Amino acid sequence: MATGFFVTGTDTGIGKTTVSCALLHAFSTNGYTAAGMKPVVSGRKDGLWQDVENLQAASTVSMPRKLINPYAFVESIAPHIAAQQTNIRIDLEVIRQACEKLQTAAEITIVEGVGGFMVPLSLSGLSGDRYDTRDLACVLGLPVILVVGMRLGCLNHALLTARAVESAGLKLAGWVANRIDPDMLQPEANLQTLVEWLDCPLLGILPYQAQPDVQQLAQYLDLSRLR
Ligand SMILES: Nc1ncnc2c1ncn2[C@@H]1O[C@H](COP(=O)(O)OP(=O)(O)OP(=O)(O)O)[C@@H](O)[C@H]1O
Ligand SMILES: C[C@H](N)[C@H](N)CCCCCC(=O)O
Ligand SMILES: [Mg+2]
């Protein structure tokens, strides 16, 4: 099995952190040491970057903040715009080295992306200067786990993302159905569609929980299905 996974999703706010934390718990329940990483975060609330806090809390090893989260921006905006505003260049090599250190400290590293799979990270979008979260996943060279936030529109987003992962030359290790919308119509038919159309294993179906409990949600994940 791989020693790390890059967790991407169908959008921002669809459960990447929730699933990443559940994965960390699932791995630690299975006897692995596990470290969470959020290379780039934007959006500080009440003095905290909640994604980083949650991943840190779900990890079994204690690592320096700078390694867990090399880049943190205050405003809740696209990271390359936040980077531009603060004159900070997101350096993929810095992230790669931090990830490598986490990987030597823990048996499994779970890296949460930012937003969806093709979020700009470079300061400039002019051709030649461009890189995004897909390039980050490639630099880390980790197999990808796709979190699908189950709501109307997710079929298109999930299939586009799977195609982008594959055309980047990365392995899709599995996908997770996260029931974020309790009122979604035809959830089973949508789920079945993705089972048929996504060419990677379904690792679990996480139920809707008004107050998500990542330790409980971990029980819905079957790590033995990871490809
Ligand atoms: N299974 C679930 N049931 C109910 N609510 C959920 C579930 N999974 C996630 N949520 C809620 O949805 C919101 C977004 O989840 P989360 O922060 O994990 O998304 P994300 O994809 O990591 O977002 P971001 O793009 O900001 O990193 C949170 O309020 C979270 O508690
Ligand atoms: C602020 C939010 N929660 C994330 N941290 C950043 C999401 C970036 C999305 C960029 C985009 O695709 O438009
Ligand atoms: Mg998150």
From TrEMBL:
<comment type="pathway">
    <text>Cofactor biosynthesis; biotin biosynthesis; biotin from 7,8-diaminononanoate: step 1/2.</text>
</comment>
<keyword id="KW-0067">ATP-binding</keyword>
<comment type="function">
    <text>Catalyzes a mechanistically unusual reaction, the ATP-dependent insertion of CO2 between the N7 and N8 nitrogen atoms of 7,8-diaminopelargonic acid (DAPA, also called 7,8-diammoniononanoate) to form a ureido ring.</text>
</comment>
<feature type="binding site">
    <location>
        <position position="42"/>
    </location>
    <ligand>
        <name>substrate</name>
    </ligand>
</feature>
<feature type="binding site">
    <location>
        <position position="17"/>
    </location>
    <ligand>
        <name>Mg(2+)</name>
    </ligand>
</feature>
<dbReference type="Pfam" id="PF13500">
    <property type="entry name" value="AAA_26"/>
</dbReference>
<feature type="binding site">
    <location>
        <position position="51"/>
    </location>
    <ligand>
        <name>Mg(2+)</name>
    </ligand>
</feature>
<protein>
    <recommendedName>
        <fullName>ATP-dependent dethiobiotin synthetase BioD</fullName>
        <ecNumber>6.3.3.3</ecNumber>
    </recommendedName>
</protein>
<feature type="binding site">
    <location>
        <position position="112"/>
    </location>
    <ligand>
        <name>Mg(2+)</name>
    </ligand>
</feature>
<dbReference type="GO" id="GO:0009102">
    <property type="term" value="P:biotin biosynthetic process"/>
</dbReference>
<comment type="similarity">
    <text>Belongs to the dethiobiotin synthetase family.</text>
</comment>
<keyword id="KW-0547">Nucleotide-binding</keyword>
<keyword id="KW-0093">Biotin biosynthesis</keyword>
<dbReference type="InterPro" id="IPR027417">
    <property type="entry name" value="P-loop_NTPase"/>
</dbReference>
<keyword id="KW-0436">Ligase</keyword>
<comment type="subunit">
    <text>Homodimer.</text>
</comment>
<feature type="binding site">
    <location>
        <begin position="13"/>
        <end position="18"/>
    </location>
    <ligand>
        <name>ATP</name>
    </ligand>
</feature>
<dbReference type="GO" id="GO:0004141">
    <property type="term" value="F:dethiobiotin synthase activity"/>
</dbReference>
<feature type="binding site">
    <location>
        <begin position="178"/>
        <end position="179"/>
    </location>
    <ligand>
        <name>ATP</name>
    </ligand>
</feature>
<feature type="binding site">
    <location>
        <position position="51"/>
    </location>
    <ligand>
        <name>ATP</name>
    </ligand>
</feature>
<keyword id="KW-0963">Cytoplasm</keyword>
<dbReference type="GO" id="GO:0042803">
    <property type="term" value="F:protein homodimerization activity"/>
</dbReference>
<keyword id="KW-0460">Magnesium</keyword>
<keyword id="KW-0479">Metal-binding</keyword>
<feature type="active site">
    <location>
        <position position="38"/>
    </location>
</feature>
<dbReference type="GO" id="GO:0005829">
    <property type="term" value="C:cytosol"/>
</dbReference>
<dbReference type="InterPro" id="IPR004472">
    <property type="entry name" value="DTB_synth_BioD"/>
</dbReference>
<feature type="binding site">
    <location>
        <begin position="112"/>
        <end position="115"/>
    </location>
    <ligand>
        <name>ATP</name>
    </ligand>
</feature>
<dbReference type="GO" id="GO:0000287">
    <property type="term" value="F:magnesium ion binding"/>
</dbReference>
<dbReference type="GO" id="GO:0005524">
    <property type="term" value="F:ATP binding"/>
</dbReference>
